[in-house]
Amino acid sequence: MRTDMCGQLTAADAGRTVSVCGWVDRRREHGEHLAFIDLRDRTGVVQCVVNSSHDLRSEYVAKMTGEVRLRPDDTANRDLATGEIEIEVVEIEILAEAEPPPFPLDERTEVDETIRLRHRYVDLRKQRMQNNLRTRAAVNSAVRRGMEEQGFVEVETPMLIASTPEGARDFVVPSRKEPGSFYALPQSPQLFKQLCMVGGVDRYYQIARCLRDEDLRADRQFEFMQLDAEMSFVDQEDVFTAIGHAVANAAEAVTGERPTEFARMTWLEAQERYGSDKPDTRFGMELVELTPIFEGTEARVFQAPCVKGIRMEGGVEALSRNQIDALVETCQR
Fold first, then answer.
1. CB 82 within 8 Å of CB 6
2. 332 pLDDT higher than 80
3. Which residue from 50, 66, 51 is spatially nearest to 14, judged by alpha carbons?
4. Quick check: helix, strand or coil at residue 310?
């Protein structure tokens, strides 16, 4: 149906007759008889020169056939991958008409998230969303490759299981054949991966979908994905090496650079410096020791074996009185 992708045409294709398919991104009139159409697909945008009589509107889906030609130097768009060429269209086939989109699809316009989610199929057409999906796919592929290079076997475990004691509540699914009985959706594949070890699999992994019925927060969702792994006859260093190799693969797939080593810290160091066993080490304001300052204090909130705080350099000068009061109120809560 198409011979080329929109964003992959270059000056080397000049003179070729091509067929491209995609969405009408923009339309610009040029005099009485010509119009410029930016046609978009997953690879990018290409400019098409058409007769202005064609009724092509924003987000129409179309197939365009024509000859690739070089643009004059003064009209070339250096900011566009295909900016050196355009397609002189001789045939247009409208594959699907479209109503005006509910919001602009350019990356410069901020759109309320509720509206974006209501029209998710439109939102996914944005280049940023396309990039997110492809980055996720590249990470998953790199992680799988990294695990399999070390002898891990991907095993898909059941989604309908018996309820087991976990850290959150289960999502339950009623059974039609056994009225009053329910399946649970897995919070993790914990029992199944242990059975794999008993069964001699030796090295198991999967990119597992987990479901937990808990309150939604920035770092909590009903449904999430995790790299799940289990190994037999190993020690702590073996686990670090195996997971580090997979993470390095993922980093290389996204950034093009492969980390050679990962910084380590003990649990005690993480607690002392950040007050968390999963610290964000990009956070510069580490905890400082305040216990000696509050020895003998009558303030009950500071009557503890260990008191630590965050020191903000230049905070008195940088913050207004209202901002300081707001921080005090936050601490008191």
1. yes
2. no
3. 66
4. strand
Give the span between the Cα atoms of 36 and 87, in whole angstroms.
10
Non-local CB neighbours of 317 within 8 Å, separated by 6+ positions: none
Nearest CA to 246 among 180, 149, 117? 149
- Least Cα distance to 99 among 24, 159, 40 occurs for 24
CA-to-CA distance for 120 and 118, rounded, in angstroms?
6
Sign of CA pseudo-dihedral 204, 207, 209, 215: positive
Reported as type and span, the H/E element at residue 240 is: helix 236-255
Tokens describing residue 190: 């914990």
**Which three-class secondary structure state does DSSP give residue 122?**
helix
Residue 228: Cβ within 10 Å count: 19
Which domains are assigned to the chain?
Answer: 6-96 (2.40.50.140), 129-255 (3.30.930.10), 267-332 (3.30.1360.30)
- Contact call for residues 119 and 103 (beta carbons, < 8 A): yes
Which residue in the block uniquely carries the two structure tokens 């247009």?
92
pLDDT tens string 116-160: 999 999 999 999 999 999 999 999 999 999 999 999 999 999 999
Q: State the pLDDT confidence band at 257, using cuts at 50, 70 and 90.
A: very high
pLDDT digits (tens, 9 = 90+) for 164-195: 877 789 999 999 999 999 999 999 999 999 99
User: What is the token pair recorded at 41?
Assistant: 């697909």
Sequence-distant contacts of 98-101: CB under 8 A, at least 24 apart: 98/57, 98/58, 98/59, 98/60, 98/61, 100/57, 100/58, 100/59, 101/58, 101/59
